[in-house]
Amino acid sequence: MLTIEGNIVNKxxxxxGRIEIDASGMISKIGSPTGVADFIFKDxxxxxxxxxxxxxxxxxxxxxxxxxxxxxxxxxxxINGGVVAFAEMxxxxxxxxxxxxxxxxxxxxxxxxxxxxxxxxxxxxxxxLNKSVPYKVFMGQSVGDLFFTSNEALEAALEKYQEQNVSxxxxxxxxxxxxxxxxxxxxxxxxxxxxxxxxFALKLIEKYKIIGKICHCSTIEGINQIIxxxxxxxxxxxxxxxxxxxxxxxxxxxxxKIFQVNxxxxxxxxxxxxLIAALKKGDIDYxxxxxxxxxxxxxxxxxxxxxxxxxxxxxxxxxxxxxxxTPAEIARICSSNPGNFFNQFSTRKYGEVKEGYIxxxxxxxxxxxxxITKEILKTKAHWSPFEGMTFPGRxxxxxxxxxxxxxxxxxxxxxYEK
Length: 418
Ligand SMILES: [Zn+2]
Prior knowledge:
Helices cover 29% and strands 22% of the residues. It is built from twelve helices and 19 strands.
């Protein structure tokens, strides 16, 4: 059994209390502090473990991309960043698209020190699995066969996924094609590509009664369409990433290749601040990383994608300090909302510090700053877009099913240990 006392933050209530986690890794009791516990935290914040709904861990049965990341290193980077579970994307060389390929990949994912939920891919010839799983569809270019070159082909494929849970990567393939000669990555993947694709995704969600999620939204115009659709009663939720909240084109210079990502870093500061406001207000549902590790050599050659798992927790302290997010708002977008998504497909309950829920917790010190350096990263890719930058706070401990991992961030030693 593990006992922890301190400031507990749920989405609707912050209180000083005592958490008891039993031998099976579940929260068995929440009570008042006694002054005697395995860990007593004074100023730190104890959150229901953070869950990242958008991770590319790279490993599949081809093992062709294990040099970028695998389930073990992705899980270690997650713990390092205070993430206790993640959902993983299917754009692999051998994608999980049916019961057999899904189970095979799922067996590989068991290596991860944190629980992994796999998305199944949707392609031209795929059908829903027998098991209840979340799906991902790529509108616009991706790898392998898992993308569509026209809206007609996409609709023909999605018709089979009525009432299923589907996440959409929204970039209109026709607009990408017609912009492909533009000079910069941002202009080759313009705002209009996302806005147009979101509009079409919402039509499909409505027509086929899909439970939709729009991935890594980067334009406020696109987000406003989704908010309107939510108010009309559509079942649709919204992801946003740290990079679209933290960076805009005014910050791009010689770092352009490192910062290349799809959808791209957007032009204006106003757009970026509007995303932050929508996240704080509750219109955007989830903070997700879109952790997409490539080697530095691949980035130099134009690979798109950023690494973020290691810095998820520190990033939330920036939201609190610089943008006045309350701890409860962080619990909503990092724990409770993603927990509600995850729990539909897991046998365990995530998202709240409550009896019967999983004993996986994220403990932050919001006032002990940290500068991000290569030395403190666990991702196999071994770089971060935040290198050299300082966040106002850090993860001090990640607890996975009752097992504490103490952060050693900043000491130059092992980053965490059991
Ligand atoms: Zn992605």
